[in-house]
Amino acid sequence: MSFNEIIGGVCAPKGFKASGIHCGIRKNRTKNDLALIYSEVPASSAAVYTTNLVKGAPLTVTKNNLASSGGIAQAVICNSGNANTCNANGVEIAQAMCELTGQALNIKPENVLVGSTGVIGQPLDIEPIKNGIPELVSKLTSDFSGSNLACEGIMTTDTVKKEVAVEFDLGGKSCKIGAIAKGSGMIHPNMATMLIFITTDAAISSEYLQAALSENVQDTFNMISIDGDTSTNDMTVILANGMASNAKITSRDENFEVFKSALKFISVKLCRMLAGDGEGATKLLECHVTGANDIPTAKTVAKSVICSSLFKAAMFGADANWGRVLCAIGYSGAKVDVTKIDVAFESEAGKIDVCKDGAGIDFSEEVAKNILLKPEINILISLNSGNNEATAWGCDLTYDYVKINGDYRT
Amino acid sequence: MSFNEIIGGVCAPKGFKASGIHCGIRKNRTKNDLALIYSEVPASSAAVYTTNLVKGAPLTVTKNNLASSGGIAQAVICNSGNANTCNANGVEIAQAMCELTGQALNIKPENVLVGSTGVIGQPLDIEPIKNGIPELVSKLTSDFSGSNLACEGIMTTDTVKKEVAVEFDLGGKSCKIGAIAKGSGMIHPNMATMLIFITTDAAISSEYLQAALSENVQDTFNMISIDGDTSTNDMTVILANGMASNAKITSRDENFEVFKSALKFISVKLCRMLAGDGEGATKLLECHVTGANDIPTAKTVAKSVICSSLFKAAMFGADANWGRVLCAIGYSGAKVDVTKIDVAFESEAGKIDVCKDGAGIDFSEEVAKNILLKPEINILISLNSGNNEATAWGCDLTYDYVKINGDYRT
Fold first, then answer.
1. Which residues pair with A183 in a beta bridge?
2. Cβ-based neighbours of B366, under 8 Å, separated by 6 or more
3. How much is the pTM?
4. What are the two backbone dihedrals, phi and then psi, of residue B81, each rounded to the nearest 5 degrees?
5. Of A390, B4, B237, B392, which is least surrounded by CB within 10 A?
6. Neighbours of B106 (CB within 10 A)
7. DSSP bridge partners of B177
8. Which of B364, B31, B37 is nearest to B181 (CA)?
9. For A170-189, how does the pLDDT look when each residue is reduced to its tens digit (9 = 90+)?
């Protein structure tokens, strides 16, 4: 299936507008701290949330709103600079954000979804948000600059903006999916919080939108790790406003599969952006596991390798220390036959086999180093025990990770 | 129960000798790379091993020897500089180490236990070991210097020697337990391999020695984490030669409990040494969890907190970022009521409450910083849901961790 990547982020699909401003949550006036995404018409909506027991108040409110609206939303508001988590009045503040946004847009508060990212456990003042919403609404635009400004509004220690959009055909109609994301880190560093806001003009019921999203995250966003710390505020939200006028997807038909493939296409793009821009990262690591007995085994192995601090540090040092790959597979909990494992490293500089049947083989350290000095590294693991595979994304562990996260909050 | 800490390490108990030399596995001639511990008489012996599926060949051979000897051993030989893991001829080499040691000591090879630590996947040459064993045996001494030299022989990137010994009364007889340990890192950096060799002159059957050791590690060595990477070569071995002439422990009687307490006493000492000397560490972190519904919950919470890269980096920066403690509890998998959690930080500079009922409270950042600038930090977590507790030990995440583990192997 081929997908045509286009520009425009969340504003690429028909009927979506966005904006972003600095309202005053952050002291640094050069960084946006409030973002809004708006659909001209009510949209089928779905979301997935962090599995952390400590959940940000905005996640609770978003979940409640989707429940009471029957999966219909028309706007997403999100601030950065404060996670609104572990605060006594967190839910109240998150609800106020929805109410104020709803008033300004003349829509019901329960049709507004809400996100926050930033430091945990510091009360979030509603005043700058309240004062900022009129400007935020007045700046809404379907121009691509809107997506750009919204993307800026949710960034924390991200060093690059993460926007993507794709065009595809659904039963003869041109459909689009767009997204913005924030990755790993905060200006007052805290969680490697991940927020993904996705828009699409495809027509699809909330039920099947939720199914597509939930199934998608298992192979994409749930396969990233920057530092093994699951955030309290992770959330992925999708709004589908149907303005592409395709026949509404209400079953697992061929169009559902096409939609899921397009969703996966943009999700993988975002995963690579998120992992490559992990806190302090100098390298994107992509771990491909093949030949697994089953998919859970392939996933467990791939995630264990990209989560290993020792392996991540070796990648920072461009050190072909494959023993750490074997070690991480060995403690992953996956049932594998160690004596069948092959490992290779690959980058734009070439590919090198380093381990065969669970034991080392002769290889040129110089060639391996040249391969590992590149900014995108593939770790290729063959378990040689079946036909299932998985991919996980991560980054190297660097001095800057320690620096970013060892700094004072204040 | 009171224990009298004494000097002498593994040579403190009656009838034990030790030695350490440089035999040539390491290129650096100033570092010992071969260690031997010897009991004048056959000793009840027990061991616990890493749970990593990828296991060093020495572990396989030690396990086999303990099985064929019925839990009786008289010597432990261990090299550093090479883990003898993921090598085609690993078992053969480890067996040769036992055979050569047995010949030189005039004991059966199956009464020799063997360990290795160092880089994975590089063939281990038996020649320097073969050539070194006569000198190693000739230098055996019950003098405390023997324990010291043996301890040096198993060190890798350890910056301090880890020796401990304790004296206690068992049914009117003075008994001793001594130990040496190596912690986190390698001169060719690889796994945070942990090796613990314990000697005692207490009389106890192999069966109850194994029980005491297995139960002990659950609360001590299994509660340490330097970087979340479970080594392929972790092993704890204990030899009990009975020369203290106490009535042999062959049941779960009062003496068994005293012996276990003494074992725990030295184990906790070693845990603190190991964690405090974690790779690159500037701070020892001790996390006490109280008020848990059950012990597994307390352990899960304590380990999750000391394993969090974000929290470890915050401790390096002396940042009282308690949100990361809550976050790590939240994703630990333990079933806890988040709204009941209290958190405090404590060191020699004092104690400060930072979180009450799962939410932030006002506290002086300056006072908190002064507390967290000290080299030993207690993280006190009250779950306020029961009467069970647990302790885990770890260290901060620093630039030097990245440096040590990002360096080339060669």
1. none
2. none
3. 0.82
4. 95, -10
5. B4
6. 8
7. B166, B200
8. B37
9. 989 999 999 998 876 432 23
Determine the Cα–Cα distance for residues B154 and B140; give it in Å rounded to an integer: 16
Show residues of chain B in contact with A324, CB under 8 Å: 120, 190-191, 229
Which two three-digit tokens encode residue A215? 């199934």
**Could you read off the pLDDT of A13-59 as tens digits, one per residue?**
999 999 999 999 998 888 899 999 999 999 999 998 887 888 889 99
Backbone angles phi, psi at B406, to 5 degrees: -95, -10
**pLDDT value of position A405:** 78
Q: Integer distance in angstroms from the first to the last C-alpha of chain A? A: 49
Which tens digit of pLDDT belongs to each residue from B328-348? 898 888 999 999 999 999 999
pLDDT of residue B187: 29
State phi, psi for B88 to the nearest 5 degrees: -60, -35
Q: Which amino acid is at A230?
A: T
DSSP states along A211-254: HHHHHHHHHTGGGB-SSS---SS-EEEEEE--TT-PPPB-SSSH
Percent of chain B with pLDDT over 70: 96
CA pair distance B184, B163, nearest whole angstrom: 15
Residue B403 C-alpha, separation from nearest chain A C-alpha, in angstroms? 8
Average pLDDT over residues B294-299: 95
Task: Count CB neighbours of A293 within 10 A.
Answer: 16
* pLDDT on residue A1: 67
Distance of CA A297 to the CA centre of its chain: 23
Catalytic residue, from A193, A200, A297, A391: name it.
A193
User: What is residue A187's predicted lDDT score, i.e. its pLDDT?
Assistant: 29
Task: Name the residue type at position B195.
Answer: L
pLDDT at site A188: 29
pLDDT of residue A381: 98
Measured between CA atoms, the residue of chain A closest to residue B398 is A402
Q: Report the C-alpha gap between A59 and A47 in whole angstroms.
A: 9
Interface test with B, best of A50, A53, A329 (most B CBs within 10 A): A53
Place of tokens 């060799």: B197
B320-331 tens-digit pLDDT = 999 889 988 988
pLDDT at B186: 34
List helix spans (H) across A56-198: 57-68, 90-105, 127-138, 144-154
**Could you tell me which of B262, B297, B268 has the C-alpha nearest to residue B284?**
B268
Concerning whether B193 is annotated as a catalytic residue, the answer is yes
A404 with A192: CB under 8 angstroms? Answer: no
* Per-residue pLDDT tens over the stretch A91-143: 999 999 999 999 999 999 999 999 998 888 889 999 999 999 999 999 999 99
**Residue A309: which pLDDT band, with cuts at 50, 70 and 90?**
confident
Note whether B285 contacts A: Cβ–Cβ < 8 A: no
**DSSP β-bridge partners for residue B19:** B36
Q: What percent of chain A has pLDDT over 70?
A: 96
Provide the pLDDT for residue A403.
Answer: 84
Contacts with A55 from chain B: Cβ below 8 Å: 330
CA distances from A225 to A163, A177, A274, B5, B403 (A): 19, 24, 9, 44, 21
Residues 6+ apart with CB under 8 A from A326: A338, A341, A343, A355, A358, B54, B86, B120, B121, B232
Indicate the average pLDDT of chain A: 90
Residue B47 has, within 13 A of its CA and on its CB side, a CA count of: 31
Neighbours of B331 (CB within 10 A): 21
Tokens of B326: 């809550």
Q: Which of A86, A122, A321 sits opposite B409 (nearest CB)?
A: A321
Cα-Cα-Cα-Cα torsion A380, A236, A87, A83, nearest 10 degrees, comes to 70
Residue A184, min C-alpha distance to chain B (Å)? 11
Return the HEC string of A269-286.
Answer: HHHHHHHHCCCCCCCEEE
* Minimal C-alpha gap between A103 and chain B (Å): 30
DSSP-derived 3-state class of residue B151: helix
